[in-house]
């Protein structure tokens, strides 16, 4: 590999991508200790020594309508990163993590500048716009796929695709035995505890937080002894979330510095969660959950035509079965969510069956060691 002091640009716009990026950086520096990292990410990547040119949360927007309103910020960030590809000090490689709408455009610019591109977490071509496979192969050199069914989509294309397992398995293994937070929060062990997981993006709060709050109120009306746990992603502010909850609801807000998402999930009897990577994190713990998601009506009507999947939640996609109930858009009412949570709390057979079904998700995600395998792909590129 020659000179060991490599400059690697890493770009992600998601809280989960920031975690994966930090773990990958650690795996790279274990082999190449002088590597310099810079790019787009969050607190975890910064803690590993990445120079953050643009905070990931500035770019993390979901939904077609929402992105349009955010375009000036996104374009400004894109141009700033593109300038790094010029001149004598350009990166030795570009690592892109998830975040496809932004990252595939960036890959095209890197390719023009002769910079090798590793894409980590394949864009979800199996869910929508399968025609993107050719476009991805044209601008990406190596692709690290995190689901076993993904490499087949790239058959016949001029791109190296490897199934590397799921990065959450490393994270879960590192978390060790999940800590029960009830003693620390002074919640009696016999109390019913419901997790309310609002996501990690500001516009997720905008469309979904009030639904969670109203669901909690309905659950509390039926179960006045219940307690609620709300994990606060490091991309969001606790005060912003807390302001939506009425003071009479018994809620504990848990910031990511104080406990892992696995600790929070294992301290709950059931969880109401937005869709996304978090559903896999909950599945690894095995806590029964209901998945819900809401976006603007226009984004939903466009997305419904484009997205071709049987399930919205990753836990169900990996299981290839509806093992966890999903409430999308108009079905995501406070009443539906509250009824589902109450069913888990009061029907032990139903809860137990869901826990058993969630075990297969863990099995299907493969073996730990994902970050080291992705690092190896990068070394081959360099």
Characterize the structure shown:
The protein is α/β, with parallel strands linked by helices. The chain contains 17 helices and 13 strands. Strand 4 (93-97), helix 5 and strand 5 (117-120) form a beta-alpha-beta unit. It is globular. The model has no long low-confidence stretch (mean pLDDT 90).
Give the topology.
Elements lengths: L6 E5 L3 H17 L4 E6 L1 H5 L3 E5 L8 H6 L1 H13 L9 E5 L2 H13 L4 E4 L11 H8 L2 E4 L14 E4 L3 H9 L6 H4 L7 E5 L4 H21 L4 E6 L5 H5 L8 E5 L5 H6 L3 E5 L3 H8 L3 E5 L3 H10 L7 H6 L6 E3 L5 H13 L1 H17 L5 H12 L1
Parallel strand pairs: 1-2, 1-4, 2-3, 4-5, 5-6, 6-7, 8-9, 8-11, 9-10, 11-12, 12-13
Rg, nearest Å: 21 Å
Question: What portion of residues is helical?
Answer: 40-55%
Mean pLDDT: 90
Shape: globular
**Helix run count:** 17
Query: Which percent range describes the beta-strand content?
Result: 15-25%
Largest sheet geometry: 7 strands, parallel
Q: Indicate the low-confidence ranges by residue numbers.
A: none
Secondary structure: number of strands: 13
Strand order of the largest sheet: 3-2-1-4-5-6-7
Secondary structural class: alpha/beta
Between the first and last Cα atoms, what is the distance in angstroms?
7 Å
Give the SSE string.
EHEHEHHEHEHEEHHEHEHEHEHEHHEHHH
Multimeric organization: single chain
